[in-house]
Amino acid sequence: MRATVRQAGRATVHLTVAAAMAFGMYLFITVLLITAIGTVTVIGAWLLPETVLLVRRIAGAKRRSTAAWTGREIPEAYQVIDGPLTERLRTAVRDPGTLTDLRWMAAYYLYGALLVLALPLWPVGLVVDGVGCGLLRRRAVVLPWITRLADLEAGWSTSLLRPSPKALLAARVERLTATRADAIAAHGAELRRIERDLHDGTQARLVALSMRIGLARRAYDHDPGAARKLLDDAQEQAEQALTELRQVVRGIHPPILTDRGLIGAVRALAAGAGVRVTVDVAGLEDDGPRAPAAVEAAAYFVVAEALTNVAKHSGAPTATVRIARMRRGLQVEVADQGHGGAAESSGSGLLGMRRRVAALDGTLRMSSPVGGPTVVEVELPCVW
Asked: Could you read off the pLDDT of 101-119 as tens digits, one per residue?
C-alpha cells in the first residue's frame, strides 16, 4: 500500500505540473491571437518568428517533463531561425517542427487537465484501497488509476511531440551540412599544417643538405678533410630530414596503425604517455575484424590528444583508456582523476577532436567538472 501511495503521489505531481502548463497555455491564446492579427495585417509580422521560438521553449519544457516521467527522451528537430526578417518568417512557417508543436498545443488544451479526473480518486482510493490492502490483503484497485492517467498523459504527449520523419530528415541534412563544413575546415587546416611542416622543416634541411654536398664536391680536390667534414654534416642533416619527414607522415596516418592495428597503436601511445595508463579492450581481438581505416585513425588521434591533455593539464598520475566494439560502431573512452575544468576554449584540442569525430558522423561527449574526473567519450559508427 505504501508503494502504491508513493507512486500515485508521483503521478499526481506529474499531472499537477501538466495542469499548470495547460492553464498557462490557456493564457497563451492571447499571444497567439495577437501574433495572428499582426501577421495578417503585416504590421506585426515580426511577432511570428518570436512566437514560434516561444512555442518551441514551451514544447521543450513539456518534452523534459514527459521524459522525466517516462525515462525516455523525446528528440527535438527544429530549423534554426535567424537572418533577416523574410528568412526568419520563411523558416518559421516552413519548419515541420512548427506544425508538430501547434498540433500538440491544440490537443493539449483538451487533455492537459487530466488532473481533474485524478483528484477525486484520492479520497476514494485511500478508503477502498486502504481497507482492501490493509484488512483484506488485496491489491490496490483505485489508486493505480492515477498512475494510469499520468501514463496516458505522457503517452499522448510523446506521440504528439515526437518529430515527424520530414523534420528528422531536415535536421539530419542541416547537421550533415554543418559537419561537412567543419570537416572541410579541419581538412584545410591539416593541409596547411602539413605544408608548413614540409616547408619550414624538411624542405629547409634538404636545401641545406644540397648546399653542403655542393661545397664538399668543390672542396674534395684541394681539401679532402674539409670535404669529409661537410659530408658528415650532410649525412647528419639527411637523417634529421628523414626523421622530420617520418613525423609528417605519422601526422597524416600513423604507420603503426597499419602495422599493429588500433589496439597495438593505442598501447604504444599508453606506453609513452608520461602517466600510467590502463588500456581496457572489449570485443576487439588482435586477429579479429578491424574497423575502417578512417575510423581507426580518428580513434587513434582522439586517444593521442586526450592522453596529451592528461599529461599536460590534468595533474592526474593515471588514466584509463577503454575501447569497445559496439554492434554498429566503435566506442572510445579516456578518463582521468585529475582536477577537471577542461573546456574547448582552454587550448585542450577538444574542438579539433570534435571536428574529426563529426566528419565521420560520430559523437563526442565530455564531462569535466571542476575537481574532476574528466571523461571523454567518443562513438564512431562503422560496419564490421
From this structure: 999 999 998 898 888 888 8
